[in-house]
Amino acid sequence: MDAAVDFALRALLIGIGATLVLDAWTVVLRRAFGIRAPDWALVGRWIGHVPRGRFRHAGIAAAAPVRGERPLGWCFHYATGIAFAAALLAANGTAWARQPTLLPCLVLGLLTVVLPWFVMQPALGAGIASSRTPNPTQARMRSLATHAVFGFGLYLAALATATILR
């Protein structure tokens, strides 16, 4: 298989797999503890306002709805997972992906918390690292745990992909 195709296919499979693990985690949290899952429609709403020159909101829930915001948000969620998987592969190589190890996945998973803390949460009106939420410490810990789960999902998906693409 061509190296570029191999890279792209692995990034796609690992990113989708890791994001599925993350989504399964949010289902468990909701069912076991009543913790609400992220509303990807609000992320889609934010994306829908970007072409109109609106990058930051006091509170995204109060912003005007955007047509197709829910599927747009879900696509962004999975595209982000794929992009992070591509970053993992770029940093570690496709040779690593043939025999993946856990540590690079967990490190990247935890590093990915930078995006919501310093980009998405401020843009959606929650402040830097959830500083404008009712319980910032709880929100930060939940973000760290979620991104650690994403890192573990990267590892599981990399293992599965290594088996599939032998």
Instruction: Give the overall silhouette.
Output: globular
Q: Radius of gyration, Cα only, in angstroms?
A: 17 Å
The low-confidence parts are: none
For the residues shown, what is the average pLDDT? 95
Q: Structural class, judged by helices and strands?
A: mainly alpha
β-strand amount = under 5%
Pfam families: DUF2938
Transmembrane segments: 7-28, 71-90, 102-124, 144-165
Protein name: DUF2938 domain-containing protein
InterPro entries: DUF2938
Structure description:
The chain is an all-alpha fold. The chain has six helices and no strands. Helix 1 crosses helix 3, helix 2 crosses helix 3 and helix 4 packs antiparallel against helix 6. The longest helix has 31 residues. The mean pLDDT is 95.
Features:
single chain, 166 residues, mainly alpha, 6 helices, 73% helix, globular
Brief sketch in words of this structure:
With 166 residues, this protein is mainly alpha-helical. The chain has helices spanning 3-33, 40-49, 69-98, 102-111, 114-124, 136-164. 73% of the residues lie in helices and 0% in strands.
SSE order and pairing:
Elements (H helix, E strand, L loop, with lengths): L2 H31 L6 H10 L19 H30 L3 H10 L2 H11 L11 H29 L2
Helix pairs in contact: 1-3, 1-6, 2-3, 4-6
